[in-house]
Amino acid sequence: MRYVDELTDAVRSQLALAYGIKDQLGSALRARLREGYGLADLRADARAGLAVALLALPLSMALARTTGVAPQHGLYTAIIAGIVVSLLGGSRMQVTGPTAAFVVILEPIVARHGLGGLLVAGVMAGCILVLMGVARLGKLMQFIPHPVTTGFTTGIAVVLVVLASRDALGLELAGRPSGTIEFIGAVWDARAGARAGDALVFAATLALLVGLPRLHRRIPAPLVALAAVAAIGVVAGHLVDGFAPRTIGSTFATVIDGEHVRGVPPLPPLPVWPWRLGDATGSAFPIDYALVRELLPAAFAIAMLGAIEALMSAVIADGMAGTKHDPNAELIALGIGNIVCPFFGGIACTGALARTGTNVRAGARSPLAAVFQALVVLAATIALAPLMAYLPLAALAALVLVFAGNMGELRHFGRLMRIAPRSDVLVLVTCFALTVLVDMAVAVSVGVMLAALLFMRRMAALTKITLDTSVAERLAMPPGIRLYEIAGPMFFGAANRAMETLDAVGTDAKVVILSMKGVDVMDATGLIALESTLDRLGRGGRMVILTGLAPEPAALLERAGIKRVPDRLAVAPDLDTAVSMAIVHTARAT
């Protein structure tokens, strides 16, 4: 019967978990529909979706190219993620798709494991994100310190500039360098092959991207600039001998029904097994433990950076639109999106700040605006695929460079270097250097660890044990009684350090009163530290009286079996009672 009860409890817990996830999914859309959704709202969402699609269409291709995969994989990500995450997520205004921040993580994966390995890593990252959402870790992302995120974003911007230099100069690199330093070396070695035509296209596109928004903010600068440069490039190619900048059509090809199609295939995202798309050599590969272990650090980096960027974007969207998002629902939806995308050829996705901001400013009213954006991108992928083949790669590089400049925080980076405490500067420089010089997967892992250590260090500084002499004088306590007040959480980062104060209790003390009214939280490490202190004081012949226990620490002590022991340990409901008990014990001992 006991085993039946245990099985029943396990089933109930799983059902409760499944119900909780089901209740979270789509919370933003369901809440908006309950408020009422009419034809005017539908029109507003459709207009906003169109405005976002004008930005998402060229940017998705540019980011995919910079990552090292064919442009259509960026489009597929915008389509699938835009639909799945928006319908299931916890943010009303969030637009999800490929982002510039991910390029730094994804490009080394493509170099080492090919497109198939990249997609498998995306599925693994999606599983991690779902687990984070189920474990309700969404709000913990706000504890990532500013120096960590600033180090990441500034380092990412620098790496994006380096990666864009290849197409900006029309270079053909030898092999596929997997790191920033290796990439710079490969660009330097290939410098003799720089093409003037590509450099001119890059400069012209950059000028249009910077200049058009100054003429009118509502001009979709990326789409207009890329279309204009592509048209000029086609005309110049016919009029000027030798002017042939590299384009999507001249670089990428897809075999459809035995026929080579140049550029982006005019097809919607179709189901595919990610591992069949090939590793770095183009060969299909099996999913085994060795591969999963090798891809796990990259998957963790994708999940962590995706969570940080998505929740940061959702917070900014809330501030712009006056809404409120559910961070755990957003993480679960983002995880599902990253699981589904690779099975349609899409790369890793997260909340896109620029597209989300455009969505809000364009008047979006519900998550359906992001769905409309995805549908517009889908229609353009099918209908405009032949025209996309004429887009110069140098123009896409210019678009990436502009977004790198927008996301880079060089001014803020320099300000933090001047005014931040030394520990924050160390974290800032470490995250920046690892992002640029080593690998984004390593940078994210170390950054999260540094964030945790920095948080523990500062929380530990808040937990103190002080000898309270003012109360002793007010209550006229006789000699031999010491009153210590513990203030702050007793957790693994602070407990042992705080308890060191009690090492100074003199041999003349007969009773030690520990006032714990300032301790709201106590974990296992805090419990063990307290037990060790109680044991040491007891062996020294001193009586310890605990007072002011909050419900959570009191319940923990009870579960641990810490009970009253005559002349060794007592628990008092308040300070006055504790002092009276101490006076009685002292009088009896003398």
3D structure, described in words:
By secondary structure, the chain is α/β, with parallel strands linked by helices. The chain folds into 2 domains: 434 residues, no CATH class; 126 residues, Transcription Regulator spoIIAA (2-Layer Sandwich), CATH 3.30.750. 65% of the residues lie in helices and 7% in strands. Strand 8, helix 23 and strand 9 form a beta-alpha-beta unit. Helix 4 runs antiparallel to helix 12. The radius of gyration is 30 Å and the shape is elongated.
Using DSSP, what is the number of strands? 9
What is the spatial order of strands in the main beta sheet? 5-6-7-8-9
How far apart are the termini?
Answer: 58 Å
Shape, per Cα inertia axes = elongated
Secondary-structure map:
Layout: H1 2-24, H2 27-34, H3 39-67, H4 71-88, E1 96-97, H5 100-134, H6 146-168, H7 180-189, H8 196-215, H9 221-239, H10 248-251, E2 253-256, E3 259-262, H11 289-321, H12 327-340, E4 350-351, H13 353-361, H14 368-383, H15 385-388, H16 393-407, H17 410-419, H18 422-438, H19 440-462, E5 464-467, H20 469-474, E6 481-487, H21 495-499, E7 511-518, H22 524-539, E8 543-547, H23 551-559, E9 569-572, H24 575-589
